[in-house]
Amino acid sequence: MGASGRGGARTRRQHRDADHARWPHRPPRRQRRLALPRPQRDSRPGRNAHRHGYGDLSRAAGDDAQDTQDALADFVASARRATDAGLDGVEIHAANGYLLHQFLSPASNQRTDQYGGSPDNRARFVVEVVKAVAEAVGPQRVSLRISPEHNIQDTFEHDRDDVPATYGSLLDQLRPLGLAYLSVLHHEPAGDLVQELDRRFAGKLIANTGFASVTSHEEAAQLIEAAHVDAVAIGRGLIANPDLVERWQGGHPENEPRPELFYAHGPEGYTDYPFLQAD
Predict the structure, then answer these.
(1) pLDDT in tens, 191-227
(2) 217 contacts: CB under 8 Å, gap ≥ 6
(3) In what order do the strands lie in the sheet with 231-232?
(4) pTM of the predicted model, to two decimals?
(5) 54 has catalytic annotation
(6) Marked catalytic residue, from 54, 98, 181, 273
(7) SS3 category, 93
(8) By C-alpha distance, which of 66, 67, 45, 44 is closest to 57?
């Protein structure tokens, strides 16, 4: 998480087209590089000053275990702050090409230590993070979000043998914890892979289809009827309709989302969508 000024950053974002605005921002550099090999250092004075100290996640991952321990400590500290502030729980983000997802993907994970190579090794760091957070705030207050085969931001997962092996190993190790739920983003949430992941997790499962289209009432209802889906995650529809539940229950028309404002600053496009008018 982070914040930026309203000036130039907002102006640039306003010029993005609506299609591009549907997609999440590329992770900051220090989140992207933990699972990647060391780049060549520039020997010229001052050229590597920005890499020094905490947050230097671009070093060769197999050469320095301290980076992973620092990152793990950040997850735990963030979870503690969230629950101390009164939140009901935390959802650990291991999807959409961000830091933890990079460990799971054989394309982005180029480590040669205990965190790279085999499916079990690539799942190891995610397991360590989830276990540490669960120990800190209680497993009933912790959940995990994954997006197998989403193939975004260089976290490619094209091998259908490797995907269930990696995510199966992950969930087999997390199943005894009794987490609050597992959230799965997948283009076929009712398909065989998600059903297999549900069996391996053996807990509550929330499904979502991803970015291709806005989840409709009919699609959500169909997923809920599936035996393995306990709930459906709604994003854009809920942003555009603060009273979405009432609209779905009453069959009312919905506001259209304005994706060009999804990553802008301020209330426009977030809190200014109209509610249903009383009769």
Answers:
(1) 999 999 999 999 999 999 887 788 999 999 999 998 8
(2) 248
(3) 90-94, 142-146, 181-185, 205-208, 231-232
(4) 0.78
(5) no
(6) 98
(7) strand
(8) 67
